[in-house]
Amino acid sequence: AVVSTQSTGGNQFKASVNDVIQVDNLDLDPGTEIVLHRVLLVGSLNYTLIGRPVLPSSTVKVTAMVIERGRGPYLRVYNSGKHHTRQFFWGKTWHHMHFHETMTTMLRIRSIEVANTDLKESADG
Asked: Closest by alpha carbon to 112, among 25, 13, 9?
């Protein structure tokens, strides 16, 4: 099996064919095929290709399909601190809590194609 590590939205994901990954919001409709350009590493039992920092698009092509778009986990953010009224005198402590949900997109890796090797794997077989 071919495994690749790709970067999208500032995060890195390790995936092989037919894996589902959850990435930050992409403004695409479900069913849309996309190509992931920032591939950092591709490997199998026979070889490993490491990009510095990314592999060229002529060497490797990772395609994915948008499965669904939705909301991510409900995050709770808590901040606290002290008011600095004077240099040596501390004021009262303040607390602030807010909640937010990030929009996410689910992608299914359809194929990982590597040039100049005999191993090409796709979801269709």
From this structure: 13
Report the alpha-carbon distance of residue 37 to residue 14 in Å, rounded.
Answer: 14
d(CA 7, CA 5): 7
The amino acid at 62: V
- Is the separation of the CB atoms in 90 and 82 below 8 Å? yes
CA 13/CA 98 separation, integer angstroms: 28
By CB atoms closer than 10 A (0-12, 13-18, 19+), residue 36 is buried
pLDDT by residue (tens digit) across 79-93? 887 766 555 555 567
Contact of 39 with 9, CB cutoff 8 Å:
no
Peptide bond into 73 cis (omega under 30): no
Amino acid at site 5: T
Beta bridge partners of 13: 6
With a cut of 50, list the residues of the chain below it in pLDDT: 118-119, 125
